[in-house]
Amino acid sequence: MVTTKAPKVSFKAQMLQAREQALIDVMNRLLAEKGFEAMTVDEVAAEVGIAKASLYKHFPSKEDLAAAAMAHLMDKALAFVQAMPADQSALDKLRATVAWTMRLKLAGQMPTLPSQNSTLRTALMRNKGYMDGLMEVSERLGAWIEEAQAQGQVNTALQPVVVLYTLFARACDPVLEFLKATEQYDDDAIVDMVMSTCFDGLRQR
Amino acid sequence: MVTTKAPKVSFKAQMLQAREQALIDVMNRLLAEKGFEAMTVDEVAAEVGIAKASLYKHFPSKEDLAAAAMAHLMDKALAFVQAMPADQSALDKLRATVAWTMRLKLAGQMPTLPSQNSTLRTALMRNKGYMDGLMEVSERLGAWIEEAQAQGQVNTALQPVVVLYTLFARACDPVLEFLKATEQYDDDAIVDMVMSTCFDGLRQR
DNA sequence: GTCTATAATCAGATAGAC
DNA sequence: GTCTATCTGATTATAGAC
Q1: How long is the CA B164 to C1' D8 vector, in angstroms?
Q2: Pairwise CA distance, residues A20 & A59, whole Å
Q3: Yes or no, beta carbons of B200 and A37 under 8 Å apart
Q4: Which end is more exposed in chain A, N or C (fewer Cβ atoms within 10 Å of the end residue's Cβ)?
């Protein structure tokens, strides 16, 4: 009977997928807290509550685990931009997206990777889920940027790729944690201030 | 005779100081190229051409060596801001300083430290040369910021500390290396573009 | 697939001769 | 102070039983 066999397999698969998701979640948090090099695979396994050898059955290397975590983040980002209400202006969509990434970082859920590590870069480039998500997010943001420029809301003297990189960089802006470290502002105030410096600049308008 | 003895001691001391400077220079470059965690003490010793044990006679730990490199950088930064022509506006002084840090980074001479590493943070805080330089640079930039705000050149709605952190952060802005990686812009163009996004913002003026 | 136990490697730091 | 040689500990990754 198909009806008895299919659920059994599905249940097992669900358990496995849940475990992988737990690994990715912990990895995500540790990447955000300590960074790729300072964080260890032992910590991930210990926090999830499985043996390290079992972790390596799911992911062939530390780099691949990090890539999976980044792919998951890209999925979340893509879901966010896809769920954006269509009645907002392109600029507002860009602002909302950047604010979302900032809040993620302030909440300690934004994994930060060293931009120089080559083994990690290759693992990321090999990860189809990550690359596809990155491309899709970039294209959507890029379209909004050009739309906002056409509407005269974003500086037309800036090339779209420069705007795109500048927005992406807000996700790992050290100003966020510097301001948080002063303990003088709550997260909302920090987001407001950095949003202002990002979109309006430092000069008086 | 003092005249024969003094030079002899001074010569020895000069040799030692020169060796320490060589260590700091190599450390500085490796910090910029690979970052603190990826770089090894062995590399520093090998490039300078001394044994690792000798290095540890100069600096008690990897963290202290990094702190010394950062202190040296602060010295250079302080020298730069002190040498600034007095006939420039406060805003222009700020712009010149930020541009200087960006060019340093583009030239691969800006050491980047992980902001989370706690052992490194304590080593930095303990290093009087670094802390003094940081304080002095911060105070000078802070004075310029307030002056520029009083002259209506910098957004008065921003608290000076936010402006200060935003300017400091340009020294480790990943947008610089992203744009460099595209190989479509020379360093001057990159500095111009990032200066524009920093001071003028992304929105149309 | 999960576990315990272990390999293999690498990096920070030190001992001791000179 | 500088060297060679070594220690110590941590970390990625794997072998093999169940």
Answers
A1: 43
A2: 9
A3: no
A4: N
